[in-house]
Every structure is written in C-alpha cells, then in structure tokens.
C-alpha cells in the first residue's frame, strides 16, 4: 500500500512567521502548525506522490531521513486524509464544504468597504459632537433609569441588550463571510440567559493580517450601535431641549453599549481584543502561558519551585511574550475593579435606592410597591439560579473527579 498515493482533502497553507506554516481544512475548522520541511512534505503528498517517493525526496533534499508514515498518521488524526467511503459524512451539518459558495459574502464586502467606513466615521463623529454639545444626550449611569417602573427598565434593557449583542455578533459573522468563510451565528443559552454565539469557521486558513478585522468587527458594531442611539435620542428632543421618552431609552441603551465596549478592552479575560493581540504576536496560547509565568514566579518566591508549571516544551520566543504579557493579566484585575466601580456600581446603587424607596412605603395600594417587588423577585430568581447551577456543577465535578483519576 506504500505505493498508493495518499488522498488529501483540499488544504490551506498559510505562512505563520518565518519558519512555520499553518495547514488546515477550512470546511471542518481543523488546523495545525507545521515546520517548513513538514509542510513541504504535505504539499508533495497532496500532489500525488507516494510515501516512498516523498521519503526519497526528503533524504535527497535535507540530507537526513524522515518518518513520513508518522506524519501521515498525524494527518489522519487531523482528518486531512480523504477516505472516499466517508466523504458524505465528513463535514458536520451546517458547514459549507471547502470551495463552496458562501452566502452574504457580497453584503460582508459592502459592509466593510471604504464608502462604508466613511459613513461609519461620519456617524460616530456626529454622535460625539452631539453628546459633547448636549449634556442631555451624554450616556451616563443615570440615563439607565429612563422610566419610573423598574420592571419596564428591566424588560427594555433585556430586549435592547439582546438586540445589541445580536448586532455585535452579526458583524463578526459578516466580517468572516467577507473573506469567503462559512462563519455562522447561532442562538444558545447559558443558564437561563439567551446568548448569541459566532463561529468563525476556517479563520486560521487566511493570512494572519486578514484575521484582525473579524475579531474587531464586534467593536465596530458596538460603536455604530451606540452612535446610532445617541443620534436617535437627538431626534427626540423637544423645542425646549428636553429629551423625550424614546430618547431617554436610547441614551440608557447607549450607556450599556459603551460598558460592553469597555469590557472588550479587558484583554486578560480573553475578549475580542485579546485574540487580536494573540494573532498579531503569533502566540495563540498567550493567556495560558502568561498565567503559568505568574504561577511560576509565585511558587519560586515562596520557595517551592517544584510546583512551578513545566515550560520545557515552550519556545523561547513565546516565553518572552508571555513574560511581557503577564503584567496585563495582573493589571486586568485592577481595571476590572475600576470599570465595575465607575460603570456598574452606580447603576446598581440607583436601582437599589429606587427599590428600597418603593418597598419602604409599605402601601399595598401603591403600584410602585408591586412593580418594585416584581423587579426584585426577578433579580433574586436569577441570582438563585446562578448559585444553584454553580453548586450543582461543583458537586458533579467532585463526584466525577475520583472516577476520572
């Protein structure tokens, strides 16, 4: 069987630095980093050469033998080797085969074209000028309380945030479709919350520079969403300068959108911007390596270096990058605390003050009492669900740990 050529799927070859190449199947999102000589072997196998022919070529070219059968086995594990009997079942449902048509690619290209960028810049600049010149339009924690009913605030914020997140993830998807990738948007749930999830299928199969925009597209979407809300609020101003009900809602949602944008800058939490940094630095495990470096420093500082993580398999370059990134992880905690104190706590305190005031009246004929009671019950139910699921998961891990060991 050695004389039979190895059948390979359509593969992508993308240079990753000076001495590595990312090879992968975009249709199933399977990628791996290979050294240049191994990538050259894969290319010859893909060209129809048999294993003995490639082995002879490698010995002649590099002056030493290579374990080509072992490399072929690795290709099988990555599902790069094509088996005609399994072709109909190889690609998961919903994924477009490599080279197949991609819907919405034209829309993605239009959405990130130069004319579109000019329109985006004009919209954001207009919103900034409006907010700078009109205090009533400036997003702030107090703008979240656009209604006297806490239940109305909760429902509107839930719907507005859901729409904003769908808009955010949709930009990620279209940025991938722009490159011809079968990226997709799905709706799932975490605990009792509905979430939108983007899968950028095949992103590792495009040049590194082209991966940045799909990661940043969500931030672009958030900036446009917030700017659009501020401009919409400006249209709802009265002759006296006051903002109407719709405008107040828009300003409140704009503030929450800006909070989401600020959260993306906490790169240590592996947000969209973290993947931009990891992509630019060519270190996909940057966060994990940085945390291991911090643990190593801690255990060495307390005199127990034997407990430090093993970094023997990590390149010197990645270790240098991890050491430089480690302070970002440390400072990230302080930045998170600052964001919570300055951006989230004022909203929570305002909510609690209104809640306490309404419940403190004790008048059952006061509609604000029942409104506040229902709003408080909804919040407590979510917290109880979160605690319950957390405890359940911990108990499950505790029960399965001895078995796994």
UniProtKB/TrEMBL annotation:
Keyword annotations for this protein? Membrane, Transmembrane, Transmembrane helix
For the keyword Membrane, the answer is yes
Query: Membrane-spanning regions, if any?
Result: 111-132, 144-167, 187-206, 212-235, 247-267, 325-353, 373-391
**Could you identify this protein by its name?**
Peptide zinc metalloprotease protein
Q: Source taxonomy lineage?
A: Bacteria, Bacillati, Actinomycetota, Actinomycetes, Kitasatosporales
């Amino acid at each position: 069987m050695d004389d039979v050529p190895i059948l390979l799927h359509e593969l992508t070859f993308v240079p990753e630095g000076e001495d590595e190449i990312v090879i992968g199947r975009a249709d199933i999102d399977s990628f791996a980093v290979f050294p240049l000589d191994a990538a050259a072997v894969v290319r010859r196998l893909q060209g129809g050469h048999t294993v003995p022919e490639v082995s002879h070529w490698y010995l002649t070219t590099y002056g030493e033998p290579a374990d080509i059968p072992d490399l072929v086995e690795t290709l099988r594990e990555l599902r790069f080797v094509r088996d005609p009997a399994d072709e109909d079942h190889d690609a998961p449902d919903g994924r477009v085969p490599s080279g197949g048509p991609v819907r919405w690619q034209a829309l993605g290209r239009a959405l990130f074209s130069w004319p579109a960028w000019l329109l985006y810049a004009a919209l954001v600049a207009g919103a900034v000028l409006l907010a700078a010149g009109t205090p009533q339009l400036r997003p702030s924690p107090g703008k979240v309380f656009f209604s006297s009913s806490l239940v109305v605030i909760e429902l509107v914020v839930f719907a507005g945030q859901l729409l904003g997140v769908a808009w955010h993830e949709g930009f990620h998807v279209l940025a991938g479709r722009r490159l011809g990738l079968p990226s997709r948007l799905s709706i799932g749930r975490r605990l009792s919350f509905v979430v939108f999830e983007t899968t950028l299928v095949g992103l590792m199969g495009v040049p590194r520079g082209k991966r940045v925009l799909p990661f940043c597209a969500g931030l672009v979407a958030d900036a446009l969403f917030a700017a659009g809300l501020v401009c919409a609020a400006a249209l709802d101003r009265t002759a006296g300068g006051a903002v109407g009900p719709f405008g107040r809602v828009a300003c409140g949602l704009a503030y929450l959108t800006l909070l989401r944008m600020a959260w993306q800058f906490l790169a240590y939490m592996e947000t969209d911007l973290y993947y931009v940094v990891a992509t630019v630095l060519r270190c996909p495990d940057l966060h994990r390596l940085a945390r291991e470096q911090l643990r190593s420093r801690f255990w060495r500082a307390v005199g127990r270096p034997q407990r430090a993580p093993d970094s023997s398999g990590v390149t010197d370059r990645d270790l240098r990058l991890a050491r430089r990134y480690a302070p970002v992880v440390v400072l990230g905690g302080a930045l998170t605390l600052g964001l919570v104190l300055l951006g989230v706590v004022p909203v929570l305190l305002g909510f609690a003050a209104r809640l306490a005031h309404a419940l403190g009246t004790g008048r059952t004929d006061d509609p604000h009492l029942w409104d506040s009671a229902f709003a408080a019950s909804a919040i407590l139910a979510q917290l109880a669900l979160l605690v319950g699921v957390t405890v359940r998961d911990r108990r499950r891990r505790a029960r399965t740990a001895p078995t796994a060991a």
